[in-house]
Amino acid sequence: xxxxxxxxxxxxxxxxxxxxxxxxxxxxxxxxxxxxxxxxxxxxxxxxxxxxxxxxxxxxxxxxxxxxxxxxxxxxxxxxxxxxxxxxxxxxxxxxxxxxxxxxxxxxxxxxxxxxxxxxxxxxxxxxxxxxxxxxxxxxxxxxxxxxxxxxxxxxxxxxxxxxxxxxxxxxxxxxxxx
Amino acid sequence: xxxxxxxxxxxxxxxxxxxxxxxxxxxxxxxxxxxxxxxxxxxxxxxxxxxxxxxxxxxxxxxxxxxxxxxxxxxxxxxxxxxxxxxxxxxxxxxxxxxxxxxxxxxxxxxxxxxxxxxxxxxxxxxxxxxxxxxxxxxxxxxx
Amino acid sequence: xxxxxxxxxxxxxxxxxxxxxxxxxxxxxxxxxxxxxxxxxxxxxxxxxxxxxxxxxxxxxxxxxxxxxxxxxxxxxxxxxxxxxxxxxxxxxxxxxxxxxxxxxxxxxxxxxxxxxxxxxxxxxxxxxxxxxxxxxxxxxxxxxxxxxxxxxxxxxxxxxxxxxxxxxxxxxxxxxxxxxxxxxxxxxxxxxxxxxxxxxxxxxxxxxxxxxxxxxxxxxxxxxxxxxxxxxxxxxxxxxxxxxxxxxxxxxxxxxxxxxxxxxxxxxxxxxxxxxxxxxxxxxxxxxxxxxxxxxxxxxxxxxxxxxxxxxxxxxxxxxxxxxxxxxxxxxxxxxxxxxxxxxxxxxxxxxxxxxxxxxxxxxxxxxxxxxxxxxxxxxxxxxxxxxxxxxxxxxxxxxxxxxxxxxxxxxxxxxxxxxxxxxxxxxxxxxxxxxxxxxxxxxxxxxxxxxxxxxxxxxxxxxxxxxxxxxxxxxxxxxxxxxxxxxxxxxxxxxxxxxxxxxxxxxxxxxxxxxxxxxxxxxxxxxxxxxxxxxxxxxxxxxxxxxxxxxxxxxxxxxxxxxxxxxxxxxxxxxxxxxxxxxxxxxxxxxxxxxxxxxxxxxxxxxxxxxxxxxxxxxxxxxxxxxxxxxxxxxxxxxxxxxxxxxxxxxxxxxxxxxxxxxxxx
Lengths: 179, 144, 668
What we know:
The complex is a heterotrimer. By secondary structure, chain A is mainly alpha-helical.
């Protein structure tokens, strides 16, 4: 009785393991399991490019906050841009039909697109941003500023509200939290 | 850039040095020789007053409990035995014939004054003989 | 059932070999059906090992004394629950449990990555299967739990009474879940090396496994400490015993890894370091199992030794050689995408954190293997004891606690003076005030003052973070409680991590207090006499004896008072278990423990005399309960961090160092 049980288990395992050989995919040409290696490569390059773009944004951000000297900024910015442009070229040469000349213009476009990406994104991003600002701008520096139009927080030196885009006039700025 | 790198190397070196210093100092100040009873006997008198750790089997029948919780017993490993005086927490598995480890000083009165007492289960804990035989014969004492 | 179990074990061994071959062949030859078959094989191994374990548990519960393992670890009077837990009381059962957990993890990995990372996964599966091959080999051919006795025993020897404890029932499993959990990120790392897919994928998919393993290692260590505290009866919870160190070392390395992967995610740096670190962590986990199970280093916990020692050493050597060979082979592909720009930055805080964790792991490793090394090198066996470990690890731990406060708030890449001032002013003041108050109160122990001050510093940084987050959200009209919940659930990883840090702080406070300010006293009392210690008074009422089915107990009856107020009876016991000859360990000291928020009263009955006197040792351990409560906080934090869902997980690419210029958005 027990031998039969053990045999049944063995048989079951064997069947299960050999299943993929019996039910081969019907798709013609190429293996269904493995994707196009070129696509994988493009994906990987894309991820590296993204990380460079965010680094560029970050440098711009720090420069804007006065955390970087002009020389540092220019050096880092130039360096990352060069690398990103190189990557872009590589991606283009992988993709069929794309222009082989992915120069600095392409990278400028990408950076611009990256900058614009979050403007329309949803509320949580706003919260994240404000938390960051709370870290960057101390409460000891005096009261926080808030946009009179939409009520979102602004940095001391902001000229425009980062959420709704309203102009922040000195006289319109409230120094107290809006209700 | 180069200056930054140098700073890193210095910081990392400082950490590595600090850890090495701690390790070195720790080893130097806290190391104890681990001897068997036989080795201890052979090193008399140079071991007098040194802090050492000794392992051996508790001689059956040698355990004497003092009134205040102190303990006297003998340790043996076939190459002689030593008397041990100990005061402190006694492990639950400590009894005749177990392998015990003591740490302390071997005095010139040939009594080992221990302040650490550890006991280990004999090897036969994983042997099958005990299942059939309630005697104390084991497979032998484990060596480290 | 025994036959079924045996056959399932053997099949599991055979199938894992097949999985290794099929997976590697399928990946190299680009044959998808082989890869799929290997994945099914991994699931089958899990199924087979579940059956084998089920069969063994069945034998244990039904006390089939014809099996050696059952006869050695159970007895007819053993409650059913401990019959089940004796699955991991002995060598063979523990190894089976290792293999079972590994196969369950492997199956989950296979199911979780059905459609993802198709170039990477075949190799990950192959590595997991290769580890399974080793363990199933041990179980099948060296330490088979289904090995029969020549003649069935009439009665089993029973379970060691110190293992008959609720903590001992779960502590080993918890620790094993952690040890084995480390194999998964290791397999991903090796898979990345073997396949050449050295991008973010292996980090991304193994992340939650790393956290999972880390959590179980942490909880396992704490449970072990609690078990030692309650059961071993010497008044402490950690003795730097080799077996404790064996679990502590992979924890240290895993903690370093959990932190350093963040740098790779955010900045694409430290790729080589992370790879080396996960190899090291896995090595330490296997080494830990080896120390525990081989008895190579003498320890009060080493329950067994057998022939598996050399095999384990061979396996460990193979892992190290193979992994580092692969590592060197791929080293050119592990170049960093970013550089270190400043020493005052989050990256460097993480680097220092990592170096210190590794320094501690190295020191613990050295101390643990010192007897073996010194004997091999000089012929003398030299030991280093707890003072060594404390001397080395306490300063390292203090710096680490300090960094725990710095790390989460300092800027990425380069911290400006502004950033430092604004984020750290309040915490630094909090820490300094704490230190000042302690000194004013008369505390003179430098380490204690530093430890409390750093803990206050970390707590202040974490609370500042929570406060800011909640303030921002509730400023928009959310009520504070809701704002808090939303804040945490929107970025579980960050805030869960903070909660873990708070748990660690609470644990550190408990450890500091209980190790620096412990007091103890020992006295032999006659009836009516009292003993006083730390505000407690214990009056001896006499010795009582009672008998249950399992034991003869001797109780010292004491009346306790705290600052004059009665706190009820305190009754430490000494028990003799009733087994005739067939049990090695039959004595057990049952401490009387009265645990409160501020201190623990820990009473041990040392001995009792014929004349009705009793020698008792009393300890007052301040704030020990903080260690256990801190553990609960840590667990909650870890669960928050790992809680599934959220948009972060769906993102294909890690958002590295995202700081947005116009929006000033940052994800950290």
